[in-house]
Amino acid sequence: MPKLLLALLIFSLAFAIERAPPGDFNLVKAALADDDDDDGGGRGGFSARNDDDDDNGVLRRSVRRRQASRPAAPPPPPPIRAPDEIVVQGLNDGDLDQLLGAGFSIIREINLQDGQSLRRLRKPAALTLGEARDAVRQYESGGNADFNHFYRGESGTACLSPDCPARQMIAWPVSSGCGGTPPRIGMVDTGLNAGHEALANSEIVVHRLESGDRPSGAMHGTAVAALLVGSPSSRAPGLVPHMSLVAVDAFHKVGADERADVFALIEALDLLERQRVRIINLSLSGPPNMLLERRVSELDVREVLVVAAAGNGGPNADPAYPAGYETVLAVTAVDRRGRIYRRAGRGPHIDLAAPGVAVWTAASIRGTRTKTGTSFAAPFVTATAALMLEADPDLVPANLHRRLLDSANDLGEAGRDDIFGHGLLKIPPLCENRRG
């Protein structure tokens, strides 16, 4: 009998909670206020899903709790490439006709600034993806054909502490003080919220690439853009708020997966080159790709510096790209004590370390919060290179690269190492020794 009475008492209490006015349980809702997702505004905003209000609420909640207690199977890893696509640059009409006759079809094609074509081809059903790539590469003009790899933003876990002295850590200057002409910065990322209060007075041009898929969210791109050019009067002041930013949204969503394929990435880089940017920030990573390697090498020759996140695959992961390419400045993340971010990639390609743990920036809709990941370390190097170009517009990428590495503060083992590269970013002299 006592057990039956206890069960009835518990059921009555649960039913009372379920039917109570919402105002009686504000503390529960307040716990959601700092969730940083694409539906709510970080600090100062949240969205709550209301349960259906009926007499079965307690039973449904009980079932959900039991289901939640069961260990969930780990989700499958996201795909690294499109399952049936080949991308090729500079394929001539004769070779294209041969491939179309063999069962290939054109998904999309554009002309790059240098006049060469860039095409997405769908393979014949009878060929495996590897066989399809080999079939295109057998033609003289198709030797650079590769898979349509996917690239993703390199966010990490969010830190909840507002104390983020990242700029003091590298003695960030208030201004260059050299009176030069600010260079135009480019970035390829997800969508961004140009109407965010942190970006309200910023000079930003946003381009959205064509895509039949669901558009990307604004969380990642807004955070990166605010780090670069956020209004100095906002709660997320940018590193170089007086400079202009050209942002290309090359991402789309497939289910919960937010990604950019290599076709879109190359198209975005070509668009930025047409906009005459001097520096491009790529807070994203993916596998190696022949076409991507070719494009970043061409940008280096045309005096455009590319800065990329080193990736958050962990210390045992293979190098992430485009950071792994020789001409790209690969940036890893450290915390306020100079300790490496635990999920940061490592290897001989790492160039510099920059603040990337608990970095204060804009949330997606409104407000601010801290972010962690190599994505948020890369803008520090991008902004530093921009200040250097403002002071000396004649600097070419090779000289920018060398001066940044030479001025770094050594971390870890003496000299260059695979964890911190050449060390922690340090702002080199901006107004003296302008040549070289």
UniProtKB/TrEMBL annotation:
The keyword Cell division does not apply. This is Subtilisin family serine protease. The keyword Transcription regulation does not apply. Gene3D superfamilies: Peptidase S8/S53 domain. Residues 33-83 are annotated as: Disordered. GO terms for molecular function: peptidase activity. Keywords: Hydrolase, Protease, Serine protease, Signal. The active site is at D189, H220, S375. It comes from Aquamicrobium terrae.
